[in-house]
Amino acid sequence: MKVIVSGRRDSITALYLAHRDHDVVAGLSFDYGSKHNHREIPMAQWHCQHLGIPHTTIPLGFMADHFTSHLLNSGGDIPDGHYEEESMKQTVVPFRNGIMLAIATGLAESRNAHGLVIAAHSGDHAIYPDCRESFMLAMADAMKHGTYPGIQLLRPFISTDKAGIASLGHSLGLDFSRTWSCYKGGPTHCGTCGTCTERREAFALANLPDPTTYTHLPPLPPKPAT
Amino acid sequence: MKVIVSGRRDSITALYLAHRDHDVVAGLSFDYGSKHNHREIPMAQWHCQHLGIPHTTIPLGFMADHFTSHLLNSGGDIPDGHYEEESMKQTVVPFRNGIMLAIATGLAESRNAHGLVIAAHSGDHAIYPDCRESFMLAMADAMKHGTYPGIQLLRPFISTDKAGIASLGHSLGLDFSRTWSCYKGGPTHCGTCGTCTERREAFALANLPDPTTYTHLPPLPPKPAT
Q: Residue A177 belongs to a domain with what CATH number?
């Protein structure tokens, strides 16, 4: 059993849950040249060490060199506001989940693991094509058929929203101050980008104290009409 | 439109065919630390330059560092003989096609392409799980659903065997002496590994002269009973 760890709150919660329920042989982060990789990867390393799980970072420098996205150091500025807004499309890294899942699958097979855990959740956004259910189901099939052990894709949060994941993380003893969400990757969370907005909302909805230091703390923007 | 080019005979034939039928925006090779990458990639570069197609090499050093396979520089010796033999399993690089297709998909979307060409053919071997039809169909679905343009996976040789591909390459004017097959990656083709055995057979079956310099030229081994 293996888990993908991005250092983000949801992924680290998935790590703690997998550690409770499975024999986790590896924690895995990807350094793909995003503005926030240097913030989240050390946090993933810290939690893996805390749980006694070997951690591996896979360097994917070619994405910054060849891919177009404002999420990458090579791209423009990260937009503020809710994810649903058209501007957040600029943060899409083409087929990022496909690439990370494919590499994790090969690594899982190399280490004699039989499954992968990903923190995909019910609130994942349709603006990211590689978060859609139709993608995830097809990719899970490709992973199963394309490997000897039939690597299984586990999505324990697929029926859980971000507030539910925060509550679960809290109950598993996760120190949220050691998780990173902000796409801008500054010295502290910006408080205004799409991921910061969702992070703040999730703590509020779960009635949990938010231990995060934010650079700005404006009132949360209203949810766009759906 | 984009094509994956490995420098191998089948991939380069696919490149020439795509160049005839489509607007090819990129040729793509992966340097994943195999014993033969340093032989095949310069050949892919040569053919792309010859056709006026930009060529990109994606470095995937992490595969040599973390994956287990005799195909990699970090693995053991390449076995000889027909592919069907159990020993050829040692040359499987876990989920290699999944990883290469996923990365090519992200790159294709970044360059505003709508499709990928892969030289999968009717003789691909079931010992490689990521060559199986069930994998390819699922991966094609994942690529379509996981990208904005719905990147399409094209497999022009799926009903063609290696001899048929060799005949097609010949008719397209491909200089076969500038293609590489041998998994051992020595100064010349070894003549005895699984890929050399198939390369020799394909030229013979297609009644084409074989311009390859082989280190050893023993009689071709009989096909295993199926």
A: 3.40.50.620
